[in-house]
Amino acid sequence: MRASKNMASSCNEKLDELRRGPWTLDEDNLLIHYITCHGEGRWNSLAKSSGLKRTGKSCRLRWLNYLKPDVKHGNLTPQEQLLILELHSKWGNRWSKIAQNLPGRTDNEIKNYWRTKVQKQARHLKIDSNSKIFVEALRHFLVPRLLEKGGPSPSSSSTSTSTMEAIQNNLNSQSQDKQIPMEKASSNSNIYSSNPKSIMFPYTPETSLQSNGYIVDYNNFDVVSFNPLNAQEFHSNDASTFEFEMAEVDWMNNDLADDTFWNMDELWQFKK
DNA sequence: AAAAGGTGCAACCGCGACCTG
DNA sequence: TCAGGTCGCGGTTGCACCTTT
Fold first, then answer.
1. What average pLDDT does chain A have?
2. SS3 A262
3. Distance from CA(A14) to C1'(B12), angstroms, rounded
4. Contact between residue A61 and residue A68 where contact means Cβ atoms under 8 Å apart
5. Residue A54: CB partners within 8 Å, gap ≥ 6?
6. Is the pTM value of this prediction over 0.90?
7. Residues A126, A208 contacting (CB under 8 angstroms)
8. Which chain B nucleotides are covered by protein, judged by CB under 7 A?
9. Domain map (residue ranges) of chain A
10. Nucleotide lying nearest to A109, CA to C1' measure
11. Contacts 24+ apart (CB under 8 A), A225-230
């Protein structure tokens, strides 16, 4: 009895010794120094031998996600965002697999990007981020904008038959190797509506976007969306669509063109 | 100026796969 | 073959910081 009590308290003491929460500069230095001298691997023994009062798991995570020299810090570039969107549409939440295709980026960072930026937009639109409609929205609305902001050239794309490449090829063929504003580039493409500032999205009935005959509830979104003038076309087509209006921004000439990163909110900015 | 609410991200947790003796 | 240890992945949480009221 006493022995088991002693054992329990001993275990608790050991657990109490382990630090949790944010890493201090000293801990970081200790971990870097230890790995520099001894290399990675065997995280549990590393944690013990290094003198860090952390679990092996914690050390591994800190090293791989933050301290490792080849880990990139800072915002994702448009090219990286494009790749994430494309690879996620292929593989879903296989973050580590996606991260393998983005040198210097960690699965954690990509996962956070997806949850904080992409899923936020899905919530905003009241669309399930795993739904087909949202994937289509990304492909037809966000991808062209990312391409405009500096997406990869076709030769550098790792997804040769991807939607984004198809879109880019479309844009390239129409712009004859020079970037042109989307409304021009899209004039002959069936994913865009006749309204130069609008894009037609495939519409699926399970979405929550219908209310009072409109696809978007104006009371809840700042998305402008369904254009009643298109209602006839909408109802007459099997491949139903709905319409978003692009934000009133001069995408080619404004200051954003110089940014290496811009946030998703800008891309998904909708007119009230 | 301060409180409340929202956001982003580092870190933790649980679990399954893999390794090793 | 099997059991215990370790690793890696994906989901979740906690908190600092920012924005709004």
1. 57
2. coil
3. 18
4. no
5. A18, A19, A27, A47, A62
6. no
7. yes
8. 7-14
9. 14-67, 78-267
10. B9
11. A225/A270, A227/A193, A227/A195, A227/A198, A230/A193, A230/A200
pLDDT value at residue A147 = 67
Tokens of A54: 């952390």
DSSP class per residue in A153-170: PGGG-S-TT-HHHHHHHH
Q: b/e map of A18-29 (b: 16 or more CB within 10 Å)?
A: eeeeebeeebee
Residue A80: exposure state from Cβ atoms within 10 A (0-12, 13-18, ≥19):
buried
Residue A95 contacts strand C, CB under 7 A:
yes
How many whole angstroms from its chain centre is CA A166?
A: 20
Q: What is the pLDDT of residues A112-122, one digit of tens each?
A: 888 888 877 77
Length A21 CA → C16 C1' (Å)? 13
Query: Is the Cβ–Cβ distance between A122 and A132 less than 8 Å?
Result: no
CATH classification of A14-67 is 1.10.10.60, yes or no?
yes
